[in-house]
Amino acid sequence: FAGVDKDTNLNARYVFEDFIIGSSNELAHAAAISITKNLGVVYNPLFIYGEVGLGKTHLLQSIGNEVLKLNKNKKVKYVSSEKFTSELVQAIQNREMDKFKEEYRKNDLLIIDDVQFLAGKDKTQEEFFHTFNSLYEKNKQIVISSDRPPKAIPTLEDRLRSRFEGGMIADIGFPDYETRLAILKNKVVKKGISLPQEVLEYIANSFQKNVRELEGALNKVVIQLRISKHPLVLEDIKKTLSPTMAAPKKSANIKHI
């Protein structure tokens, strides 16, 4: 398991080679590949949005790792919006705002994950706006992710929303069946195990909206495979995964409320 680099916050295991491309993410992937070869020139900022568990973080970190692979002298920083906020608060408390500004504005590539959490935090938004402008004016690349498009983030300052919408906006949707199956096959190869095609097809059919749930289901099957004293058949897999699938999310409606 690769660790997280303390300077960049990047995890080396997130690479483009392991990112499975399908119709739901091909635009975001193509834009990500493009900016690694032309930092700050095309698609700046690059804003990628999609629901939880669809691969945004994998794609964002792959951009950072690819840029460093192409040129190890580039300054790259990946950070969640919550970490940006906590570091800002700490800098204010310790009277180290100059150090904070320098840390963020020296980068050739700044990647901010889950930017929707900046909403409602006025001081953080103000500082991020100035950081954004400083980098943008120097043609430094900015990459941002969110669980929704800029116009749908409540209490986000108009000037930030305008900056986000000034670049390339790409969404990542739910993976189709073929993409889900390809993801599973890729994971199986990496784990060095063998599972029947019908088992992989069953998992791909059963978990349709979230890549993390898909991987979680596969991990359960892998554990079952390792502790089982006989070869697994499809019925075993169904029993293993049935508790995960037997708890449908209850939707609220007016009558319940």
Overview features:
alpha/beta; five-stranded parallel sheet
List the strand order in the largest sheet.
2-3-4-1-5
What is the average per-residue confidence, as pLDDT, rounded to a whole number?
89
The shape, in one word, is: elongated
Most strands sheet: 5 strands, parallel
Radius of gyration: 21 Å
What is the element string, with H for helices and E for strands? HEHEHHEHEHEHHHH
Helix content: 40-55%
Number of helices: 10
* Quaternary structure of the protein: single chain
Q: What is the count of β-strands?
A: 5
Look at the helices and sheets and give the structural class. alpha/beta
Beta-strand content: 5-15%
N- and C-termini, Cα separation: 46 Å
Unreliable parts: 246-250
Structure overview:
It is a single chain. Helix 7 crosses helix 9 and helix 9 (211-227) crosses helix 10. This protein has a five-stranded parallel beta sheet with strand order 2-3-4-1-5, with helices on both faces. It is elongated and about 65 Å long. It is built from ten helices and five strands, in the order αβαβααβαβαβαααα. It is an alpha/beta fold and 257 residues long. Mean pLDDT is 89; it is low at 246-250. The longest helix has 17 residues, at 211-227.
List the helices and strands and how they pair.
Elements: H1 26-37, E1 46-49, H2 56-70, E2 76-80, H3 81-93, H4 97-105, E3 109-113, H5 122-137, E4 141-146, H6 158-165, E5 168-171, H7 177-191, H8 197-206, H9 211-227, H10 234-245
Short description:
This protein is α/β, with parallel strands linked by helices and 257 residues long.
